[in-house]
Amino acid sequence: MFKAIRHFKLKSAKDNLNRLLRHRANLKWPTYLVLIALLVPLLFALRCGFFADWAFSFERDIWFYLSLMSFFFLGLSGLISFYEYHGFGPQEGIIRRGASNSPKVALTFDDGPSPIYTPQILDVLREKGVKATFFLVGKHVEKYPDVAKRIVDEGHEIGNHTYSHRDLVPATRATVVKEIKKAEKAIETICGVKPVLFRPPRGVYSNAVRKIILKEGYTIILWSVSTQDWRLVKPSFILKRIKKFCRPGSIILFHDSGALIKPEGGSRGHTVEALPQVIDWLKSNGFQITTVSSLIEETSFDRELAPPETQEALETF
How does DSSP classify residue 47? Predict the structure, then answer.
């Protein structure tokens, strides 16, 4: 973040704003909240306590409420991070990592298949002799059947990622079941396998949704390490996160398709570029890369939830 900001030259306020917006891929949204949370109370304290008397009480009120809002959003970012890596409510049937006493880790890819990036990722995996788990969107399976079949043909594992990548919260029971069943049918018809692993879009679920998924015979697979490749970050950023957060039993989240808002169309070029570096680093550090099913079938499998990435909401590297 700071590296991006240091390059800004003081030409004009407009130029600086344009430059900041162009560098927004290097700034994740909790960073904005942290900046607001730090700057607004500071300005409030300086203005109220040191430099000026306030002429109008409503002006003090404005700064006071802005301060409260900044702390609220900072707290919200922390809750979101906690939810992503711990969850709220009952966690039965939800897996975020494998055994902590095993050197195995699993690479997972969401939102595919993509006719552009999935084949490139498969090429890398084949070259490196690695198997992975792909959580496929049913609609994309129907749209790109050859790519979906290639995933299975090359020995990779497939999971269910709903039919249309629709958020399951909020959604009716009928909608949730429909999303699961339609994706299951598409995968089974085209790929010839019935998935038993399920990952909800964006990792968002409720207790009611969790019960429905389990009733349909699935195990819910989330993750303990996110590469945040959906933010279009540089390959070096992805590798840095792996080095910082990967532990024995980690389930690592990548994306081979998808977009920030739409279910597909986003660039995953940096994911493709980073993947060989990630695999090489994992192997050189003694990790064994496998599928999710292989990861969690260990007899000593530890169902403890993965610890959150340390101070995730405050990371700015």
Answer: I
